[in-house]
Structures are given as structure tokens and as C-alpha cells.
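If you are new to this repository, start here. Below is one unmodified record pulled from the training split, so you can see the exact layout before writing a loader.
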Amino acid sequence: MRYFSRLNVYRTSNNEVSLAKAYAYSYGWWKYWTVDKGISIFNNTYYSQSTCKHQREALKLIREPDLILYHTKESLGNPAKALQNEVDGMQHEIRQLEKAITRPRSHKAKNEERYQEIKEYQERIERIKDTLEQLYKEAV
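And here is the target side for that same chain:
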């Protein structure tokens, strides 16, 4: 990405990253990185190959984000909504895994992997809920 010192941003034709203002946009409207109250949030879900490329380019510039989202196509223009959407997506994945476990002739080894995935999702959900509480406790 090319750095524009006058604007203090990194930019390509459809991707813009500002480390100073802590944001990244794909196509000028889909915000996929933000820092909200000191917590760096990166949405790793993509709409297209070009958006995926934008995100990879931005990750080279951004220090390790505190929270990476994988299950929401929600823009980070509203981080609380995106985080809640992420939780909903992971809960859906948990339901799918639980359904797969109960299928007849389901392999024991594969079910152990599924239980482990469920545990990891539950831990991520708790982390996101803690983040939501930390970000918006004064608003509640």
C-alpha cells in the first residue's frame, strides 16, 4: 500500500488504512478495522476476493488486533452491532456442531473434535461478551 504523508493514510484505489485515526475501509464504506475505547477490533470476514486482499494488506500495517471477528459481515461502523452479530454467528455454529454430534453413526473421534470446537466457540463468546461489557458499560 502506498503511504500518503499529507493525509497520513495508506491507500490503494479501493482500500484505505489510517493508523493515526485507527480505521480501515474497503471500497470507502465497509469498515473492517477500528479501535474502540482502546480495543482493536478487526473483521476478518470478507465479501469478495478483493476485500480479502484489502484485509491482508491492512494486517501487515496493523499491530496484532485485540479481537478478530470471523462470523459477521457487519461493518465495524457500529462495533457493538458487529460484536453481537459475531456472537450470533458462533452460536449458530455451535448448534450445527451439536446437531452433527447427535447424528446416528457419528464417529467418536470426530465428535471429540466437535466438542473441542464448541468449547473454543464458547470461550470466544465469553471474551466478546466481556469486551462488549467493557466497551459499553457506561451506556447501560
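Two things worth knowing about this chain: The first strand starts at residue 2 and ends at 4. The first helix runs from residue 49 to 61.
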